[in-house]
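tool_log.txt
---
The assistant was asked to compare two proteins side by side. It first ran the structure predictor on the initial sequence, then on the second. Raw inputs and outputs are pasted verbatim so the downstream comparison step can read them without reformatting.
(1)
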Amino acid sequence: MKIPKILHTISQKLHTHNAKAILVGGSVRDHFLGLSIKDYDLEVYGLKRMESLEAILQKFGKVKLVGKSFGVLKFVHQGQEYDFAFPRREKKIGAGHKGFEVVSDGFMTFQEAARRRDFTINAMGYVIEENRFLDPYGGKSDMQQSLLRHIDDRTFVEDPLRVYRGVQFCARFTYDMAEETKILCQSMAQRGDLLELPKERVFDELKKLLLKAQKPSLGVILLKSLELKQGFFPFETLEETLWHNTLKSVDRMVSFCKGSEREDLILMLSALFLYIPARESSLLALTEELKLIEAVQRLTAYYDLPVKLFDLNASDGEIRKLSTKVSIQKLSYLALASGSSPEKVMWLESRAQRVGVLEQAPEQLLQGRDLIDLGLKPSHLFSIILAEVYTKQLEGEIESKKAALDYVSINYKDKE
C-alpha cells in the first residue's frame, strides 16, 4: 500500500518504542477500491499514554489535541494533516452522537478496537512497519461480493446515523446491503431510533449520496425500501410513474454536475424533489439553508419552460426575462434530466447563448448614480425609472447605455 513517506518515518520511530502504527478506516477501504486516498487515519498500539505519542509526533511536525474525550491528535507535516489516535471502546450512555463514553486503550487488540466500526469494509487495517493488512471481519471478501455488511448488532444500533451512511455507501460503491443489515436498519427505523438525529447530520449523508455516487438512484431506492419515513423523504406517496421518473432524473443529472459542491447540490436536489408536491416543507425538514431551498424551488418551478418556450417560438425578450428569474443553463440541465425533448431544450440553450443570457441575466445598463449624473434628484421615482429601463432593455428596445440615458432624458429629466 502506497502511503506518504512521513508515515513510514513515524512508524519506524514508534517501532523503537515497541509500538506500531496501523492505518485504519476509509483509507484502507479506498485502497482496495482503487480510489485516491484523501485522509489518512492511524491508530497507535503499544503506548500507555497519549503524551508519549504527542512527544514522538512533535519531532516531525505540528501537533494539536482535538476532542480530548476521543484522544485524537491532529498531526500536520508540510501542509498535510493526519489523524493519530489510540484504539478505543465506545459505549452508548445518552441520546445523540455525543452520547458516548469513550475509553482509549493502547494495548487493546485490533480486532476488539475494530468492532466499534460500522461496516466490515471500514474495519480493515494496514500495519505500516510489517506491510501487512488486517481484516478481522471479512471486509475484503465482502468487497469482492459488492456487499455492505455491518459488524455487530449491539454496536451498530448505538449510532443511528449508520443507517444513512450505509445507504450512501451502497450508492457510491454500487454495493448491495446485506439482508441482515437491511433488517437491522428497518427495525431501527420502525423503533424511531433515527428521529434523534440532527437533520444537519442526515443532510450531510444525503449530500454524499447525491454528489459522490455515479448512480444515486441506488441509494434513493434503498432509502425507500428501508421505510425511512422521515419528513423530508415522502416518496412513498408518489405514483409509480413519477417515482420511476425521479430515479431516472437523479441519475441523468449526474452528468451535468461540474464539481462545484453548492451548484451541483442545487441540481441534484432539484432532480430529486422535482415531483414532490410539498417540496418546500420536505426541504425544510432536511435543511435550514434557506438560500439553497430557494434556489431549488426556483429551478423546479420553471423546469417545463424550455419545452413551452420552444412550442411558442419565444422571442429574445421573453428569453431575457426568463434569465432574470432562473439560470437558463441550470434550467436546461433539469429539463434534460427530467426527460424533456433534447431538441427543444437545445433550441433554448442556443437562443440564450446568442443573446448572452445562458448563465445569467444581463446587467442593468443604468444605476442610480447614472440618474444623479443626469441631474435627477434621488427619490422614490428612481426605482420606477430603473425598472422601466431594464424592462425595455430585456425586450430589446434599449441596447446601449447611451440609448438608456437618452430615454430617461426625454421621458423624465424635465418632468420631476
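(2)
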Amino acid sequence: MRDALLRGAGIGHTVGVKMQEGEKSKEHMDEIRIGVAGLGGRGRSWMRLLQRVPGYRIVALCDPIVATHEPSLAVLENSDGVATYTQYEDILADANVEAIALTVRNPRQGLLAAQALEAGKHVNQEVPAAHCIEDCWRIVVAAERSGKVYQLAEQTRYMGVMQAWHDMVAEGQLGRVTFVEGQYFHYYVSQFFWEKDTATFYGPLEVPAHPEAEPTWSALMPAIHYLPHELSPLLYVLDDRVVSVTGMSTQGPSYSHPVIPQPDMQVCLMKTEKDAILRLAASFAQPQPPRDYHWYQIMGTQGSVEWRRSNREKPKMWLANGQMHDMAEVDWQFQRTDAPAEARGSGHGDADYYVHAAFRDAVNGVRPLEFDVYRAMDTAAPAILAAESIAQNSKLLEVPDFRPSANRPAGAMPTDG
C-alpha cells in the first residue's frame, strides 16, 4: 500500500474513551499523542499549529515519500523520539500513537480515515473526507464501533461571519430561508503536477519541460468534491441537511489549460430537509483575480445576507422590517471578535485554531463535537453525489441520512444497497 498516502497537493461521533491509568506519563498527562500522516505543505502547517495549541504532542510522522521526512522533522521544536514511517499500516500499529492527523488528499482518504478508526485511533481529517459513498459509510460505522472521535477538520464553519449568520437565522431575523448560494473558486493549478519521488510540484506551463511529471489527485478529482468547505458552514448556519442533489459540469479537459484533465466549472443544485434550495459551484482550474476563495449568500422571507464579491467590498445585509431600501455594508470578517490570543494567526482567518481545539476537547472528554461524524458526512456525501449526478446526465440523486435508525442500528452497515 505504498501509494496509499499520496499526499494532498500542498495542500466523532462520540467523546474519546478515557486512557487507562498510567498510560500517559505524568509529564504529558493532558497531551494527545498524535501522528501526522501526509507531510505535504498542509501537513507541515498542521504540525506548526499543533505545537502552538495546548494539549498535543507529535510523536510520529508518516509519508511514503522519504524526501518529505527530513523537512517535516525540521518543523518540530523537538524531534527526539519522533518515529517516522513510510507505511500507513505501521503508524496505525504504533501503540504510542493515540490519534491520527490525516492531512492527505487522494482517492482513498476516506478509507484511510476508516482504517485509523478501526485501529483504535481518534482521527482529525482534512477536507473533503471521502470520494465515494461507501467510504462515508465505513467512516461512520468505524466511529460508532470504536467509540473514537472522528472530526472533519473543516474550518470555515468557525469563522466570525458564519457565527453571526448562524445567530441571525436561529433568531429568525431572515425569516424562513429559501435560497442559499456558495462557491469555492481556487485557482490552484500550480499544484496540479508533480514528481512523486521528490514531491516537486509543477504548474501546467511547466509540464512540457518535465515530461516525467504526473497529475496529482487535485488535478484528477472532480472539483465539486471539495464542496464540504461550503456545505459545512452553510448547513451549520441553517441547522439543516441536504436530501437530494443534481449537478452539471463543463467538459474536461480544462479550456483554460488543456493539459489539465479536470473541467473548469462544476455546479449543483441541492434541496434540504427544511425546504431550502442551495446552488453551489466549485472550480480549481479557471483563472480568477486574487480574492477570497469562498463566497456565500443566504436569502429568507424577511431578509438576506451576502459575502463580499471582491477584496474592495464589504459583506452586505438587508432586512425587510428594518426600513432598509437597499443592501447595507456590514463589517463581518473571517476573524472572530471573541478569538482567544492563541487563535490569532493560526490560519484561514484564525479558524484553524478552533478545529484543533474542538478535536482536543472531544478526545479529552471535555465536550462532544458539535460537528460530529454525522454532520461531517452531511457535507461530504452531497458533493460526492453531485459528481455522480454529473456522470449520469444530471440525474436527481437522494442523499442518505447517516444517523442510526430503526433500519440501521449504530455499528451496522446499511443493508438496502
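---
observation on (2): The mean pLDDT is 92. Residues 58 and 78 are 9 Å apart (CA to CA).
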